[in-house]
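Sharing a chain and its predicted structure for anyone who wants a worked example. Both blocks are below, sequence first, tokens second.
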Amino acid sequence: MGLFRNRPPTPPPAPPKQNGQGQRPATTPHVSSTAATSPPTSKPAPAPAVPHAVPGYAPPPEFRVVREQVQQFLVKEVKASNDVHDPEEMKRLIEPIFSRALADANLVVSRIEREQMIALIMADILGYGPIQPLLDRDDISEVMVNGPSQVYIEQKGHLVLTDVKFIDNDHVLRIIERIVAPLGRRIDESSPMVDARLPDGSRVNAIIPPLALGGPSITIRKFKKDSLKVDDLIRFGSMTPEFAQFLKAAVHSGLNIIISGGTGSGKTTLLNVLSSFIPEDERILTIEDAAELQLQQPHVVRLESRPANIEGKGRIGIRELVVNSLRMRPDRIVVGECRGGETLDMLQAMNTGHDGSLTTVHSNGARDTLSRLETLVLMAGMELPLRAIRQQIASAIDVIVHQDRMRDGTRKVTQCSEVLGMEGETIVMQDIFRFDQTGIDEDGKILGELRPTGLRPRVNERIEQSGIHLPPSVFGLKDADNWYDNAR
């Protein structure tokens, strides 16, 4: 870089004056990592944020030595640095040693680049390095690090390449270790994959070489600071008010509900919304691989699986937690996702008096969810006949809600079906709501609406037994005569 040159050691430069000249210059790369596009809000001002470097700024090779000298100083000589969380206080702490490190490295820097270097160091100390500005933005739903030189984001349902870069593979590894260390988890060559979460509940998956050939990879699925409510999903067009009314009644009356969908279709968000309908006087147990659910009820017990330790021992999986939860006097069991043998235990819990259970399953549709459940039950290692498995599924599950991620990036409920029972060797289902696509507008946005099929669901009898009476219009019936004619 032209801003650097070797020279004899000189006294450290004077600290920059706060005259606004260090303001970030305009940039035109793919996507800025600043929060300039975030809408204004009337909420109280948040705590001071970690300073952000200019997007795409790449420090010279000598910066590595400077950064290490500052970090070693903090570790060895400032023992209380771990308790320093205020960015301004941290900046005052590191500026003298930073100036000394620049002089030791024989580097001349402009005032602007000095600020960028300090911002990078502080992001490494107080945050998650170069991706911290992306995590601070509310308009980004996912951050994907593909090695040190490529960072993508998901914004409004679309993938966008950013200009954010790490220094090298070791830099990415340090950020991964910072994420997983507080959770008691580890990542190394013997255990090169890990699932974790950030303090705000955002889901993290990391995988490193030798499995990741292009360098360490991080995938962070962010969660909004304020969890979405059912009114938000209605406003986004993910569901209709009538369907939301049905879901609220179904959860309140204790129906067992499966939420199905593909990766990134919004299953966990919908599970959060459904769980908000559970009455506050019930005891709820949540079981997850990485704790993501944000229940607001007062009586919630949160359980999280645990991976094996460095000796390969001590693993506690979802299945063991489901079995244990039955001894904890639950009114409701909410499992973040069924993906293995725990499905059998979940079905047995639903069939033994634990009504109102909720969980999610990866599948391509409501009917496909039944086949997926059969496969997951077989993974439990029990040699059950297929008919017995189907009988368990038919008697345990009441409603399947399927959500899709559409081609335009939006997430919508596309199908809601009830399980009626068995006829011969087949599980009988009936659609209650289906998404009717009417076209695509000039911007590529999918047009359509979730509509009732006009059939009175059998589960409505249980809803009425719980004291909730839904109007016939919720199911597409215009008057009470059609309502009762349809019930015969």
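Comments welcome. The longest strand covers residues 426-440.
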